[in-house]
Amino acid sequence: DRQTLVAVLQFLRRSNLRESEEILRREARLLGDDLGAAALSPASAGLLVGSGSDADSGEALLGRGTGAAAVTIGGSVATVATSSPGVAAVAAVPPGKGGACGYCGVGTPGRGGARVPGFPRGAGTRGSVSGAVVVEDQPDVSAVLSAYNQQGDPALYEEYYSGLKHFIECSLDCHRAELSQLFYPLFVHMYLELVYNQHESEAKSFFERFHGDQECYYQDDLRVLSSLTKKEHMKGNETMLDFRTSKFVLRISRDSYQLLKRHLQEKQNNQIWNIVQEHLYIDIFDGMPRSKQQIDAMVGSLAGEAKREANKAKVFFGLLKEPEFDVPLDDEDEEGENEEGKPKKKKPKKDNVGSKSKKQDPNAPPQNRIPLPELKDSDKLDKVMNMKEAARRVRLGPECLPSICFYTFLNAYQGLTAVDITDDSSMIVGGFADSTVRVWSVTPKKLRSVKTAADLSLIDKESDDVLERIMDEKTASELKILYGHSGPVYGTSFSPDRNYLLSCSEDGTVRLWSLQTFTCLVGYKGHNYPVWDTQFSPYGYYFVSGGHDRVARLWATDHYQPLRIFAGHLADVTCTRFHPNSNYIATGSADRTIRLWDVLNGNCVRIFTGHKGPIHSLAFSPNGRFLATGATDGRVLLWDIGHGLMVGELKGHTDTVYALRFSRDGEILASGSMDNTVRLWDAVKAFEDLETDDFTTATGHINLPENSQDLLLGTYMTKSTPVVHLHFTRRNLLLAAGAYSSQ
């Protein structure tokens, strides 16, 4: 990177290390005059301005004439003329004169590039770079905040902001919607700048005058902001540091951007232009500006929209091929005795579920992309059972809705905080605020522990029913209580083979319990704060956890340390989900975004924005192509994983959506909410004939149907029970669970 080179060369020159400087320059093929302007600015100024070779790259946004940029020299402001290469004239101006300021923005965006030009990385057309920053933006508190050095007259901030507001409100309708996105990030940065420079009364008046103009979905953030009234408050505030260090992303069409730029240059509105340069990332696209409705669907997260680049990586969303194994004959003979004609039905079904249909999936990851555990004999038996159940599965659809069986936890004074149900629907687990984990059997078969070691040694290991004999009948009961956590249990997950159970808690640990002995096997310590969710991989062995420390961790049951740490969210990771092929993990966060992570390398391959509140539920469709997400805003959003696009919005719930689940064949999406209802949506209709052409993908011009009511197949009220978990049995009966609340 050229700027870094110039900075290093300048450092070597200052330290009189001429020899090293020469060697580095020869290696990098940098000529003497490239450092001409660099040497101008002493160490106290954090900026180097090189001379631009194009007319464009020298175009400056400060000062009267083009071809002038500002450089701070020891507190005073110097104007550097950059009209001809290799020559730079410096005129020192005392601070406060001429309206120039301590930041300098140089250059216009490259023809093809979409970055906002200027301060951070320097920009010039056609690749000519003219600026460099010596100190990179480290999220170290003092460094972060020091960027809010005094700029401009505090009394003029309101004037600047209202001037821009007037301009945007008077612009054409097609541009107004796009440019209105600027209001919120500018408002926050201008307010923080005033607070940092200790203009408390101006900050207060600025906040009171303009906070009412912001979109309703930023109310919670503004409440936090209003409590920051002194410079000291900013030091420990994580939200503020996030806002400061992560660039707020706006997606704007080129026409709207040019309009804004022209306005700010004509008005000499340096204050606002500096913030645009410094703190915003404007993702410019060619084409029609987006409508208010299209923008509203996509914005609302803590850091604006996702950059389009973030959703370009290839994702293998297809399913892995099912392993091939023979169905044992004796099983089928027994079936034949019970019900006539069953084996005939069974045979073709195996072929369907087996290898033939799965071979063709071109979007599936390579079978060995990540190491998956070997199938044990018991797993194969379970798969056979699963196929038999699938043969009797009810085909759901608008004409054939599932029955719903609701498990209500009565008198749950301990406070029910998490629920999970095994894949074969034989056990249900509850995590409680009194730090207990309680497991119930929902079939007539009671829960039994394995016998003690002394008793086990007496058993004939060769007998056919050895698996029955090792269980201790004396311990049989419908309910087992597991003690071990020292705080509320926020997440629970059964392993696919039903031998293990995971629980995660406010105490910062994830615990693995044996369902053979009903004891704790391991406590995984990695999170230092509450862990909000945990989930087993659909293949077992791996599991994921997410918590208040803003990261998700991937674990394997036989490792004490996490295998991967997925960092990138700006707030708590509130829910986690494995993709059906186990190669990807989705995480939902209180920063109002959903991220998709690649298990193989830990990269973030998708960022979805659009929710207006923290995310609390995630569900992948059975074919792996789509993701449904639910949040405190009561909306359920549908995403196409391959194209990285929002493809649907289901409105109807009036409170947080805590549970989402697709039926076994993916025809129906069930959603459960704090508003005490379960709603069923037509998933087939929601995903058919989607517009996923290249243009939509490139610009995010999504066209959501006006009315999601025609996708709603049914709403089912409970008396007073918020729905915290949903589960489709192998035959497509819908199970729901929640704790009765008396108020």
From TrEMBL:
The keyword Repeat applies. It is found in: Nucleus. One of its GO terms (cellular component) is transcription factor TFIID complex. Keywords: Nucleus, Repeat, Transcription, Transcription regulation, WD repeat. WD repeats lie at residues 409-450, 482-517, 524-555, 566-607, 608-641, 650-682. InterPro entries: LisH, TFIID_NTD2, TFIID_NTD2_sf, WD40/YVTN_repeat-like_dom_sf, WD40_PAC1, WD40_repeat_CS, WD40_repeat_dom_sf, WD40_rpt. Residues 350-361 have a biased composition (Basic and acidic residues). GO terms for biological process: transcription initiation at RNA polymerase II promoter. It holds the Pfam family TFIID_NTD2. This is Transcription initiation factor TFIID subunit 5. It comes from Neopipo cinnamomea. The lineage of its organism: Eukaryota, Metazoa, Chordata, Craniata, Vertebrata.
